[in-house]
Design brief:
The structure is a single chain. With 157 residues, the chain is α+β, with helices and mostly antiparallel strands. Helices cover 22% and strands 36% of the residues. It has a single domain (24-155), classed as Oxidoreductase, molybdopterin-binding domain (Sulfite Oxidase, Chain A, domain 2, Alpha-Beta Complex).
């Protein structure tokens, strides 16, 4: 029975991993629950920013669009100059392994918190197979998400 349970778990994990197609881009779920898929070409066409990020004992040069630019490209209105109930928005980033982090929309707004959050498309000059999220100014990489597959925008009740 125990082997059967392990087999089912392995099948579920394999199905989830194979359900994510590399290099297609990124899925975004907006406030109205609509879903937008940005292709790798869409992401490459956005203004790119460069930074160095620390990952464990390594330092890497990364390049990619800001998360704000990605949200704007996906059609999310009002990502800059937030006020009132707009300040209740959160942006949740999810990796293929289920790892998730959340950012307050006000933290990402360049007129408020102005946190730099990058969608990494190249690392040390080479394209990455799957975009990842990096926060260059963080002291450690806990809010970095590798193999980023989905970004969800929600309102905190």
């Amino acid at each position: 029975m125990r082997q059967f349970g392990c087999f089912l778990l392995l099948m579920l994990l394999t199905t989830r991993a194979h359900g994510q197609t590399p290099n297609v881009g990124l899925r975004l779920q907006l406030l109205d629950a609509s879903e937008v898929i940005l292709t790798r070409a869409d992401l490459d066409a956005l203004p790119q920013d460069s930074a160095t990020v620390r990952s464990h004992s390594k330092v890497n040069a990364v390049r990619g669009p800001s998360l704000i630019a990605v949200l704007e490209r996906a059609g999310l209105a009002e990502v800059r100059g937030l006020k009132g109930v707009q300040l209740l928005r959160v942006v949740v980033a999810e990796g293929a392994d289920g790892y998730r982090v959340a950012f307050g929309a006000a933290d990402l707004d360049p007129t408020l918190g102005a946190s730099r959050v990058l969608l990494v498309l190249t690392e040390d000059g080479a394209p990455v197979a799957t975009p990842r999220l990096a926060v260059p100014d963080d002291q450690r990489g806990a809010r970095s998400v590798r193999d980023l597959v989905r970004v969800v925008v929600r309102v905190v009740p």
